[in-house]
Amino acid sequence: MDSLYALAHGLTVAIQPMNLLFALVGVLLGTAVGVLPGIGPALTVALLLPITFKLDPGGSIIMFAGIYYGGMYGGSTTAILINTPGESASMATALEGNKMAKAGRGGPALATSAIGSFVAGTIATLGLAFLAPTLVELAVRFGPEDYFALMCVAFVTVSATFGDSPVRGLTSLFIGLALGLVGIDKLTGQARLTFGVPELLDGVEVTTLAVGLFAVGEALYVASRRHIQEEAIEPVRGSLWMTKEDWKRSWGPWIRGTLFGFPIGALPAGGAEIPTFLSYSTEKRLTKHPEEFGRGAIEGVAGPEAANNASAAGTLVPLLALGLPTSATAAMMLAGFQQYGLNPGPLLFAERPELVWGLIASLFIANAMLLVLNLPLVGLWVRLLAIPQPWLYAGILVFATMGTIAAKPSVVELTMLGAFGVLGFLMRRFDYPIAPVVVGLILGPIAEAQLRRALSISLGDPMILLQSPISATLLVIALIALILPFVLKGLNRFKMNED
């Protein structure tokens, strides 16, 4: 009942005119960037971080969440109409959605995608409202050694989840951890890795790193690709409305997709790709129309889209309750919290309940806005695909530079922005995941502070990490998560050699 009262209070915050405006701007921006291939919600939030640093924290974070939800919706439009997922989580949708569009059923495909996203997002947001406080109650009992072990789990799972190679993921993480060491050591007051540059005494700005890696790096990478194959856009033919048979075949996949997406999204190594493909394979096994799969089965759109949006709400559970990001966009939102001096976790629920519950309540409003906006404005979203890429990415570079100057006017900051942009380009070029760098910079100093606090309490005895049952369990989980990808890779090679 406490969660219901808190949610009702959050609703009074969310329906304030300025917060409604922030939510509307967020869902519109999110849908637009979801439609544009290559420009995801993580890049958009990164661009807006330096621009919003003087705005209201609650409204800005509501807008970031709206961008996240909108990006999940928008990615399905391009997946269905041009067979190009705007987001990696929409890859499963493209398998059947584009076949439906080519068969003249693009309207029902977009409709089941939008309605399924609304149903899943609403159910999953309710799950977030009830599960996050339970996690907070558990996290309140954590000591510094337990928090350090939890950070280790986050480091390993994030590194192993993003990208195809765990070694590359760990390399990206260590780059972020190294950047987190720059600045004044809070315990001793000594300068570390500043190389005599006064501007580095405060450490590396998360916003500069995020904008450089995501925005500038992406612009340089796109500019380097000279030969880009154009995809033909499938026009939306026929009615946008679903038939009675379409409804009958969609409601089951919507519920099952939600049940896949929310819990997997809430796991430290979750993400949206796993539940979407699990949902697709499940619907393929359960369908009464197996002959339609591969030719445009509506279940193959309804289930993955529901899983996709449910996982977005799921990723907010560890972010809000524990301060752990499990996706690139969640990492950017964590940077947004820190920009305003807020640290997601148990204390945030106690210190700023109106902000947390206002954010959760605003997700219901954002979901309703997306449902109302998505179908009538399909034509507008499709026209966005006609924007020439040189104009688009030139605009991104201008916004990235102006935003960085506005947040911290300094030649050193602009130089770092350019350097991080080149680093982002090289990481994309050689297939290194980018999100672990940001996670390492944000969580690295927190993990260091908790470890040193634990060692101070134990008078320097490292065995304190194994004496706490919670800490020991989490460290074992981190060790398993670190070793497992290498074991699975070795088994796959062994099987291939046998064949």
Automatic annotation (TrEMBL):
Keywords: Membrane, Transmembrane, Transmembrane helix. InterPro entries: DUF112_TM. Residues 20-438 form the DUF112 domain. It comes from the Bacteria. The keyword Cell inner membrane does not apply. The chain crosses the membrane at residues 20-49, 61-82, 109-135, 147-163, 169-187, 316-335, 355-379, 391-412, 432-451, 463-488. This is Tripartite tricarboxylate transporter permease. It comes from Microvirga thermotolerans.
